[in-house]
Design goal:
This protein is about 35% helix and about 20% strand. It is α/β, with parallel strands linked by helices. The structure holds guanosine-5'-triphosphate (GTP) and magnesium ion. Guanosine-5'-triphosphate binds next to α1.
């Protein structure tokens, strides 16, 4: 039981695609609330993960990677990421230690003055590089923007994550908690379930296909025997893509469904019957309704 006054704040994690933002949110929360893949542009909308540290509640905002957007969906994702950072009390800027400060990170660092709260520099994936190059990287990024602190971590191994968490807990503003103590995410279960299926899709499919698909949960029923029956639709842009998602004799979709079902069942702690449908929706990347489904604003242009 702590007698300290409560603290609570929003911390946005921003950075180039694939630097490990979602992995870090999951590590801080201690549970998977945001999907992770080896591919860029995995996260599409804001995901809030909630972590507790002593008297502090940390609301971690996982954002889509920030990069030079081309398609409409890309623009929506990048705008969402900056919007999330602007609303936060603290911004954590994540840099991939292996990649160093590339053009994408430079562009983010150059815009940091627009954010109101303090910024922390988080150099991630330190398990991949030697220490001297880390110090040089930290110095180079610190020379270009003002950071309240610099952390060197591995979101994957957990190295340095506890130090970062204590620092964040000490620096969020005093005030009551925004969420109940047992809440770990603001993502509704049906959205998380759709995200998990999208993760499995990303892991199995290659090149442009993952980026031209999206997943929605259409139906979620609690059955009398305690099991959950879930229907989801995978939308793709073209018939040729639908065939690839199905695979020979339906093998690919079957494998995706089996992996997703297992993970969703572990989260809901009940048997899951997952039914996946694949539909062609030409130009869904320009359909406002699909954006609402993803939790994104539809950009006008
Ligand atoms: N070696 C190593 N790999 C990591 C670390 N953190 C994340 N990764 C890997 O980096 C890849 C990208 O991780 P994500 O968490 O999806 O990255 P992200 O920044 O959320 O990516 P987007 O959502 O696409 O912007 C995955 O393959 C992770 O397993 C780390 O500390 N060390
Ligand atoms: Mg992500």
């Amino acid at each position: 039981m702590t007698t300290d006054a409560p603290r609570c704040g929003f911390i946005a994690l921003i950075g180039a695609p694939n630097v490990g933002k979602s992995t870090l949110v999951n590590a801080l929360v201690g549970s998977k609330v945001s999907i992770v893949t080896h591919k860029v542009q995995t996260t599409r909308a804001l995901v809030r993960g909630i972590a507790l540290e002593g008297p502090a509640q940390l609301v971690l905002i996982d954002t889509p990677g920030i990069f030079a957007p081309r398609r409409r969906l890309d623009r929506a994702m990048v705008a969402t990421a900056w919007g999330g950072a602007q609303d936060a009390d603290i911004a954590g800027v994540i840099v991939d230690a292996g990649r160093g400060s590339d053009a994408e990170t430079d562009a983010i660092v150059a815009r940091l003055a627009e954010l109101r709260g303090p910024r922390v520099l988080i150099i991630n994936k330190v398990d991949l590089v030697a220490r001297p190059s880390l110090l040089a990287l930290a110095e180079a990024v610190n020379a270009r923007a003002q950071f309240a602190a610099t952390f060197m971590i591995s979101a994957l191994t957990g190295d340095g994550v506890a130090d970062l968490k204590s620092w964040l807990a000490a620096h969020v503003p005093p005030g009551p908690w925004h969420y109940p103590a047992d809440e770990i995410s603001d993502v509704p279960l049906r959205s998380l379930a759709a995200e998990i299926t999208r993760e499995k899709l990303y892991l199995r499919l290659h090149q442009e296909l993952p980026y031209q698909s999206t997943v929605e949960t259409d139906d979620w029923k609690q059955l009398k025997d305690g099991a959950v029956r879930i229907e989801q639709t995978i939308y793709v842009e073209r018939e040729s893509q639908r065939k690839i998602v199905l695979g020979k004799g339906g093998q690919t979709i079957k494998a995706i469904g089996a992996e997703a079902r297992r993970e969703i069942a572990a989260i809901v702690e009940a048997p899951v019957h997952l039914f996946l449908f694949v539909k062609v929706r030409e130009g869904w990347g320009n359909d406002p309704q699909r954006y609402r489904g993803m939790g994104l604003e539809f950009p006008p242009e």
